[in-house]
Write the structure tokens for this entry.
Amino acid sequence: MCGIMGYIGSGNAQDILLKGLETLSYRGYDSAGIAIQQEGALHVVKTRGQIDDLRKKCAASQLSGTLGIGHTRWATHGEANDLNAHPHTDGRGRIAIVHNGIIENHLQLRNMLTERGYTFVSDTDTECAAHLLHFLYDGDLLRSLLLTARYLTGSYAIAAVCADDPSALYCIRSGSPLVLGTCSGEAFLSSDIPALLPYTRDVTVPEDGETAVLRRTGIQIYNAKGRPRKSTSFHVSWDVQSAEKGDYPHYMLKEIHQQPQVLASPPVTSHKTLNSPQQALLLGCGTAYHACLLGAYYIERLSGIPAHPEIASEYASRIAFPYKNCACIAVSQSGETADTLSAAHTAVNRGANLIALTNTLGSSLSRMASAALVTPAGPELAVASTKAYTSQALALLHLARSWGAQLGKEEDPLFEEHLQHLPAWANEALKTEKLLKAYIDPRADKPLFFFIGRGADAVTAKEAALKFKEITYIPSEAYPAGELKHGAIALIHPGMPVIAVCTQPQWVHKTLINLSECRARGAECVCFCLPHMEKEAREAADFVFTLPDMPPLLAPIISIIPLQLLAYYAACKRGLNVDKPRNLAKSVTVE
Ligand code: G6P
């Protein structure tokens, strides 16, 4: 979703902003713009379309200012067009702002400001904040920002520049991501860390309600009451290369291939101090929700603690949860997903102890939790999540295991050794890449795919179907294998691919019977299974892909890898934009 970037220094602000916006483009956007402060005036260039379109427009204006703000917009209020693109200015063009988030009371503010003579040129919620800022402006932009915030409801990270002030860049945040950084004589702000990495790896995060003033001499943060406070920064361990594609054609392929490395490390921050609860609630959206499903399976299996996975946006209606001594594990790659943040707040208000599992140190979710686990996946920039999922699953396995140990559960003596072997199994799974491509290429135009499995394999099936939907746009269904015959089997038609995941010995036989039922109705059946299941699988399936010889407990962390590749190659074959699928955003900061 929207990304904001700000710069003040001695370099060419336009170039630095365009580069930053390019980095933030993974978040998903459909228009972009910049505002540069130069010689006592603000110059706004914005356009519908891609950063390259903006770059072309900027080339014509040749701006040389050293202070500015930029934005990538993912349309919410008003279609993607030049007028709705950010930055937005007050009517006189003296103040320009960029905004990430939603101003929920924008209609009331629009009416109030229209009555006072302000003219709106866009359909956005953001424009009311630009006019309000002007309405409240008394020559001190910091004070006006704080005042403006009192009238805004919703979530926002706003950056502002003023034509009259060449020495400062201002920002305020509440509920939307914002990170700040400095390096000799320059200061930067951004919605996410990767855009800062070419300049600094020491990052500061303002709290909700705080404002900050960025100058060439440094950054000053002010608390919600407007009092200056000392800022603390944290060091980002990734380097700039980890946020680049390298030799890979897409981020997604790079991130799929990074999984052996990611699975070599446990999550950062000790979970050993986390006392075992009486019950666990797991909240997440999209792929993170699927990690919750797997996490709940691991928690029940390894610790015996009842665990309830919930789609974050649905949690509010589960009014009986939690009851007592409940750990709520909120899972989110970005740590900024509005639905997850809102559900986590609800769980805390209902008495749960919040544990955040994110891939982003300093994210909103990790800062509101009493304990934060950070996955060591490094920046994930493809919209479709891959390495974050496997690292979340592994982190939840570690947590389940530590709770099991606290409760005196016996563990397989080979468990530790098996965990050490995960990267090698991930590498082995990646080796089937050519075979998978050869299988999917001639089938990439099929109108419907089915994925089935039982138990933990049903989770893998769900995640595989989600990858297909997200990047290939092919309707894809995931079903617990046993449930097929209760309705969805009516969709099976000759030639339709049905892909079964079989890694759990206790379910293989039954799943293969369900696969045979599909085959009997003309489906083209595929099975991903462990080596010792291969013979039986060949009797039910037209194609069998053998997974590494690994313990069934760890198999769900590895068996998703070939299915990620399958979706990837299907999307490539269909000529689609794999890293930025239509309509999707990486970080969904609105509910
Ligand atoms: C969006 C993305 C999904 C992602 C989900 C949760 O919907 O398109 O790929 O799984 O958000 O994101 P999070 O950052 O909370 O894990």
User: Anything to note?
Assistant: The first strand starts at residue 3 and ends at 8. The chain has three domains: 3-242, 247-411, 430-583. The mean pLDDT is 94. The radius of gyration is 25 Å.
